[in-house]
Amino acid sequence: MVGGSLFHARKNSWPPEEYINRTTLHLFAIENSAPPESAWRRKLNSHASILKEFSVTFVEAIKMVRLGIRLWHYVREEASYGRKAPIDPFTRESCKPSASQGVPLGGMGSGSISRGFRGEFRHFQILPGICETSPVMANQFSIFISRDGGNKKYASVLSAGQHESLGKSSDQGISSWGWNLTGQHSTYHALFPRAWTIYDGEPDPELKISCRQVSPFIPHNYRESSLPTAVFVYSLVNTGKERAKVSLLFTWANSIGGSSHLSGDHVNEPFMGEDGVSGVLLHHKTAKDNPPVTYAIAACETQNVNVSVLPCFGLDEGSCITAKDMWGKFAQDGHFDQENFRSGPSMPSSPGETPCAAVCASTWVEPHGRCTVAFAVAWSSPKVKFCKGKSYSRRYTKYYGTSEAAAKDLVHDALTKYMLWEEEIQNWQEPILRDDRLPEWYKFTLFNELYFLVAGGTVWIDSGLKTEELNGIMSLHIDKKTPKGADMVGENGTQPAEFGAGEKDYSENSLPTVSSKYKPVIDESGDDVGRFLYLEGVEYIMWCTYDVHFYASFALLELFPKIELSIQREFASAVLSEDKRKVKFLAEGNSGVRKVKGAVPHDLGTHDPWHEMNAYNIHDTSRWKDLNPKFVLQVYRDFAATGDFSFGADVWPSVCAAIQYMDQFDRDSDGLIENDGFPDQTYDAWTVHGISAYCGCLWLAALQAAAAMGSQLGDQAFAEKCRGKFIKAKAAFEEKLWNGSYFNYDSGSSNNSRSIQADQLAGQWYMAASGLPDLFDDHKIKSTLQKIYDFNVMKVRGGRMGAVNGMQPNGRVDETCMQSREIWTGVTYAAAATMIHYGMLEQAFTTAEGIFTAGWSEEGYGYSFQTPEGWTTDGHFRSLIYMRPLSIWGMQWALSSSTKTLLQPPIINMMDKTCPSSLSTENGTSSIKKKIKNKTRCFRNPVLQCSC
Asked: 613: Cβ–Cβ under 8 A, 6 or more apart, which residues?
């Protein structure tokens, strides 16, 4: 897909008129079935090139050889237990990744199915942590058109492109179908969570077709957004002079991807439901005792649309009705026999068979007339089961129950409510889409990056669980009667040690003792949104990886704040827990405990989430320097943004513990934490020595956030200790790292210690996003951001790739390690967000546009709807479908900051003064909120006006 214009041309708009005939657009605009003005677009005959994966250099390979050997043994050991290792670089999918992805189907947390822009259904993630990438080619929409008394006929699968999995047309399987669509006059338009496919005279030159794909992803709607269903609305416009009989066909295999259809005992069953909704249920018996799955495919019968079904056909010659037989009947008659609805459940399939089903919707379209036909698919897997045995009810079962009939109810509601969903989606998106100040590419990329909240392996469960289901996780108790509302109390009544005390024996003495049972923390307002998990990436199978969530969490906070608070509550509980089971860390080969009390976990686990945290075992993350500060920063930002004092009081003990835990890493008593000469932060291949710009800045920001939060909650003593430590640490940080134009990578003496790190102001980003005072003076912040822009951005292919993680002062990319030379998509968005906060709009959008150009544009590398963690300067990816790029919503947070109401910190310059807070408090909480002052006229920057 990469063209010669990638680094030379710059395109500012992608109007639909460039892809669709104006007359056709006008025809669909009349009934609101035209694609939007802002969307990601492709022609269906676009080449879907194979994506190129990164490789390590010889020097890097030598350095990692011991790690590689240990990791290989670990992967094999996990496989011997029937489990997949969280990180497995040795196993490759049989289906090579290609530039073919489109908008995924469904809401969040109930399993997902992706759909390529050419029409194929792929990337089945029905079972947790398992992604079956290969397309199931029997899952298709097809069309039959008959005119002039049957003298003119057209029959075609509505999927373009050459499909390698198809055999010869003489086969009894799907290769016998009419794969006649060239895609030359057909286009795809994506604006998550909807997508439009326009067939402009294909296959019938006189029939214009619009297919609108709609999924229930609706911000702040915690019911509909959990539903595993999607709708396909076909709008048909007959521009000819003859009446046309049009039949649309929806076929589906009884499969959850891969070879699951061959396992046997699958049953298909027709149904006729209420309000004209009819179709087929496909009951799938999963392997390895996983919970069963039931699909429902359906269409809505109306006065003008007739629905018929073929409950079961097969893909091989031994089937009673073969795929070839089915296609012949459809192409000849355009419908199936109505008696099929009374056929009842099919016989269970035998191993090796592939049972499929078909739903047909037929209508007549008059000359210059129009008609609408709606289909839906739903997949009901009420229980989610993890590898180590625990099962939970998915969130949607709270509303639909756990029976197999839920799938039928889901497609019914989808077909009768989708117009309401679309209205809510439009109301959410319109203000951004209509904002002429925003670049066109940014508008649709902002929404399309949200694909990860559906396709990122999300699991959303109902928290109405039996207590015994939750054994193994600690409980957290807050003494609501404590005057300050912020002291940390364990079940045995012990108190945390004084700040700065107990360094050498920290894990034993300075934290409260907690029980081994988790008691779900329920919001005092009664809100219960269940529990939510999402993967770091489909290749890094760890739930809610926290150092990455730091970047991605802006999307959840903006769109589903209750989910964001629930995740923070999970980690707050985890901070005070411990798990003394031994783990071998693969980087050094040493052993340690799985979870240390006081340390923020890297993740919530893989095969037994919540119960067995820290699935990541490359390094001992209890020694990482970024996790605890990131926890404090996220908690304060969420607290300030929501004004939820119940949340603040509940998590405050964990904030105190997280701050105290880090005191052991200040070895020279200068207030700053020191890195330990290994990759002890999110850049887990990039070694750090001494004080580092990244972790040091995060630590300064965490101290400031903890001081502000302590003052808000009435714990003035702890707040004052944080203030004092901050003043001391800030002076040391600037003295040791500031070089006159930016902060050095670290205070060591290695050849990359003066590198320019793109992410060095991550802590400052959170200060601006949370409405807190700046860590440094304005000159230093803007000088650093300008340096990052001039070097990390503009010196890499003219700014058309994003921001490289590390850049030497001489303008050469830092080749110290794999990660220093990579461009991380989420970090680039984060750097751009920081630039927006400081009025550097042109630099910000140019920086972020590099990710769009290289990743999403038609001339780029083809990473749309599968944005990787990063790529090299030659565009080779690492880790597709990754969490961190959700940080683009940090840019939107910065752009809209003038409209947000954040809690007022007690003193604008609170870190430079020691006077008491001027906040009035009542029962330990402040009722003061303050509107952010506008600094610039266009995109505004939060500046709090308050005085001591």
From this structure: 574, 577, 579, 594, 595, 601, 602, 603, 604, 605
Question: Rg of the Cα trace of the chain?
Answer: 28
d(CA 827, CA 882) in angstroms, rounded, equals: 12
Position 907 scores a pLDDT of 53
pLDDT at 412: 98
Q: Which helix (H) or strand (E) holds 592?
A: strand 591-595
What 3-state class would DSSP assign to 872? coil
Report the alpha-carbon distance of residue 523 to residue 420 in Å, rounded.
29
Instruction: Identify the three-state secondary structure at position 487.
Output: coil
The residue with tokens 């890097």 is: 60
CA distance 759 to 169: 55
DSSP letter (8 states) at residue 889: H
Question: Are 625 and 684 spatial neighbours (Cβ–Cβ below 8 Å)?
Answer: no
Alpha carbon 815 to chain centroid, angstroms? 29
Token code pair at residue 622? 């209890």
C-alpha 929/C-alpha 909 separation (Å) is 17
Q: Are 675 and 695 in contact (CB under 8 A)?
A: yes
Structure tokens at 131: 């992604």
Residue pair 816/804 in contact by the 8 Å Cβ criterion: no
SS3 of 201, please?
Answer: coil
The sheet that has 823-824: what strands, in order across it? Answer: 823-824, 870-871, 877-878
For the chain, the residue count is: 948
pLDDT band at 219, cuts 50/70/90? very high
Q: How far apart are alpha carbons 281 and 449 in whole angstroms?
A: 32
User: DSSP per residue over 593-633, as a string?
Assistant: EEE-TTSPPS-S-SSSTTTS-----SS-GGG-SSHHHHHHH
**Helix (H/G/I), strand (E/B), else coil: 465:** coil
CA 192 to chain centre: 12
Which residue matches tokens 């109810």?
A: 409
Token pair of 410 as six digits: 């889901």
pLDDT of residue 163: 64
8 Å CB contact between 183 and 202? yes
Residue 507 pLDDT more than 70?
A: no
Alpha-carbon span 571 to 600, nearest angstrom: 7
Measured over the CA atoms of residue 574, residue 580, residue 581 and residue 584, the dihedral's sign is positive
Q: How confident is the model over 602-639, as pLDDT tens digits?
A: 999 999 999 999 999 999 999 999 999 999 999 999 99
**How many angstroms separate the Cα of 392 from the Cα of each of 47, 126, 302, 608, 685?**
42, 14, 38, 11, 36
Dihedral of CA 811/816/822/828: which sign?
negative
Share of the chain above pLDDT 70, in %: 86
Average of per-residue pLDDT across 791-813: 97
Among all chains, which residue has been given the structure tokens 């066909």? Answer: 249
Residue 516 in this model has a pLDDT that exceeds 50: no
Cα–Cα distance between 714 and 726 in angstroms, integer?
19
Tokens coding 917: 């807070």
Task: Report pLDDT digits (tens) over 351-407.
Answer: 999 999 999 999 999 999 999 999 999 999 999 999 998 999 999 999 999 988 899
Q: Taken in order 793, 798, 801, 804, is the CA torsion positive or negative?
A: negative
